[in-house]
Fold each of these.
Amino acid sequence: MSNWHKVCRLEEIPPRGSRVVPHGAGSIAVFRAADDHVFALRDVCPHKGGPLSQGIVHGHRVTCPMHGWNVELDSGEACAPDHGCARRYETRVEDGEVFLAL
């Protein structure tokens, strides 16, 4: 069973941006797409460990700022032809508040 933790208000995450949440297992990047969908991934690119939180969000993907890998925000999977996966965390938005399952 997941433990839901309040992260912030939705408007505190810029559209097509992210917010970093410190966590014992490594930082988590919480992303807000232009359509207000919210996603969360471990803040480490599956390629060489770049900070996904500093990447460019486009659609439901983020481009790693180090080497340009594209990662699907809903699954954490690298887009072909690349291979790898960033850990995904469940999110939900209720009454404008963003929650993260840890």
Amino acid sequence: MALRYKTRKRLALLILVVALPLYIIVALNVVSAFERPSILVELLIYVGLGVIWAFPLKFVFKGIGQPDPDA
């Protein structure tokens, strides 16, 4: 199922404004629930979590910066 350009644009905005801050809050709470690791391990955890969210949502953000192909 292919999403139209306008739908993908609106969905991308919703993800960036609502879902990503919620993901950050949940990630911080989960990491803080464990004993604090060394600074290098903690950095790797946050970098990993910062990159992982984008992979399942790549189809939404692909081509958003381009002109509307439906126009």
Amino acid sequence: MSQTSPGSPLTQGLPTLRVAVLGAGTVGTEVLRLISQQGEDLAHRIGARLEVIGVAVRDLTRDRGEHVPAELLTEDASALVQQADLVIEVMGGIEPARGLLLDAMAHGASVVTANKALLAQDGASLYEAADTHGVDLYFEAAVAGAIPLVRPVRESLAGDRIQRVLGIVNGTTNYILDAMTRTGVGFDEALAAAQELGYAEADPTADVQGHDAAAKASILASLAFHSRVRLSDVYCEGITEVTAQDIAAAGRMGRTLKLLSIVERVRDESGERISARVYPVLLPDSHPLSSVSEAYNAVFIEADAAGSLMFYGQGAGGAPTASAILGDVVSAARQRVRGGVGPRESRYAELDLIPLDDLRNAFYISLTVQDRPGVLAEIAGTLSGYGISISTIHQELLDQQDDGGEQALAHIGISTHHALESAMTAALDVFSSTSTVLSIDSVLRIEGE
């Protein structure tokens, strides 16, 4: 049994498009609710009525609420996608999602997906299938939830040249870092609060280790620079090592600590290359991204002609994500009604990726050292030897002593000017092997220097 909105006399004469939904979790349920409640408006906007012909789930016995009628549920996802004109995929994961979407496109269905992991890992196979079979692939909800971002990057800015994208694209990590900043608690306490409020999963690994943000960086880089950037191309660090001491240091410097996805063009003696990376960053408090609080997302784009652009909003949640999905459904459905196709993959540039070691960044490093004459000179000499110039130094004595109970200890926080990543790695290796530096407590990049 299918589900179609009753419609008015004005829409009952319109053609019908068959819609299959893969997954009926939080997002899938909201998608079905919106299709049911807004069916009349959607039909007018599209020029065709949407008929939900089935919802593929793993468990037929689970009650999914009034917006997911039991008669629509099926465990045979493969048969379902072969009957559809449009397939909405919100089941997540790599398989069976990939196989089902490829099968759907082979049978002539257009696809709307929120599956960032699949797009980042193997978007190429989906793009190629869409081209081969003359169907559409839309994925607005895969990057920043409700925030319109994919369409502006690949359509509105198609006539411009994007230089750089900085993004807070994971609400869980932003909530945690914001809580640490506002309250002074440590990472574990902030994570527990995020889980209690539903901002973090019971297993938050993908979020706090930066994997979710890295998948989104891969998609953004591919769109912005017309080159295929895979998940394996993205350098990734999470926030599990961020401490209350790091947050306090950021405050002293007039900065805020954020987990950023950064994709940019880099020009050096090797020509133009691109970088895609995710790691915690110290941002000036004056930067627009510094004020993004709680679980919100924001993306800052720098383009040649358009200048600086800011996109802000809810990056997750059932209703916000469903909003982005329905926008894609309308676009894909309109194309089918008119007999055309939407934007295709653009990868003509095929720019190479620059290794992290070849990038230049400003750094903040935190060290625990022996408190004795000459220590600062020794540290400065090591940095200078690798071409690293110091910007500021903050030092404070610690109450504890070294393991022998004889030598007092101090904490040193050093900000540097821009230097090669490889040079900083080499300097840190020296610090790790010297008796003067007892521990390297943190290494953070600085933006806005």
Amino acid sequence: MGVALGAGLAVSIAGIGGGIGMGVAGGKAFEAIARQPEVGGDVRTLLFITLAFIETLTIYGLLIAFMLVGKI
């Protein structure tokens, strides 16, 4: 039972953290583009790279959950 709880916590904390991080990064990117529209392409490129790294960390949480469930 403890392993299943750990797996659930790994996925939920990774998902919540990733969602908050993506929201903050997206909001700041929109704010930067609104202030200086001419740098929109550069900000968008950096935003996509940042979102990819955040999503990778979320997938690591899912991987840890799969590893924990595999021990049951």
